[in-house]
Structures are given as C-alpha cells and as structure tokens.
Amino acid sequence: MREVACPVALHLNGVPRRITAFEHPLAGRQLVKGGIRAGERPEQAAARELFEESGLETRAAIYLGESAEIDAGTRWHFSLCRLAGPLRARWQHRCADDGGHLFRFFWVELDAPLPEGFAPPFQRAVDWIRGHL
User: Which residues form the Nudix hydrolase domain (predicted)?
Assistant: First the structure.
C-alpha cells in the first residue's frame, strides 16, 4: 500500500475554518499531498510536502490520524500544520515536481459545501478532515 502525507493547513484566522487547496493545471482542484519517504514520520512529510507544493512554512505539525478509505491502494496520513504568517487570500507557487507546474492556491471553508472541481478522493479527504478537527 502506498503511504501519503496530507497536511491540514488551517488559516491562522480561525473563523471561518479554512484549509489550503489548489488548482493543478492538468488535474483540477486538489489538496496538498505526497509520498512519505523512507524513515520520515508522516508529520515531517506533511510539512515538507506543504512547503514544496505551496511555499508555506510549518511552525509545528501534529499527527491527526490515517485512513485507507480515501483512495484505493493508498493510506493517507493527516497532520495539522501550524503555519507561519503572513498569509494571502490567493497565491501561486511553482512546484518543482512533475516538471515545474504552477499551482494556484486558495482557501476552502471546512464548514461550507466543497466547491466543485475536486475529484472524489479529495472530497473524501475533506470529509475525513471535517470529522477529525
């Protein structure tokens, strides 16, 4: 089974509760996630992936739990990432993975319906996050 880390990056201003999401130029709306390296703890992987994909820095990461029900053949590990500010409403970040795609980031409200355009695994991941925060 493939092991992936998913950082739960909450906006510093807690009302409404918002997490990071982005528009991938080829694959639609997503949450940050990525593989866990050998010897790496899930919360370390979450902080690393968040920085690599979004440019956001994590001051502390706390492991929330895991689920093998998000995407077949993959175990998702979720970690709450305390962000370093300041934060913008929207931003772009060029990710070195997959040839250097430009990701367009925004915030998703956890207590509102998920905007259209997220594939089912990301919808299930947001549902998991909602149930565990």
Answer: 1-130
Contact 21, 107 (CB under 8 A): yes
Six token digits for residue 71: 């995407």
In whole angstroms, what is the distance from residue 54 CA to residue 94 CA?
A: 8
Domain locations in the chain as residue ranges: 2-132
Q: What angle do CA 55, 61, 65 make, to 5 degrees?
A: 120
Interatomic CA distance for residues 118 and 2, integer angstroms: 21
DSSP lists the bridge partners of residue 45 as none
Look up the CATH superfamily of 2-132.
Answer: Nucleoside Triphosphate Pyrophosphohydrolase (3.90.79.10)
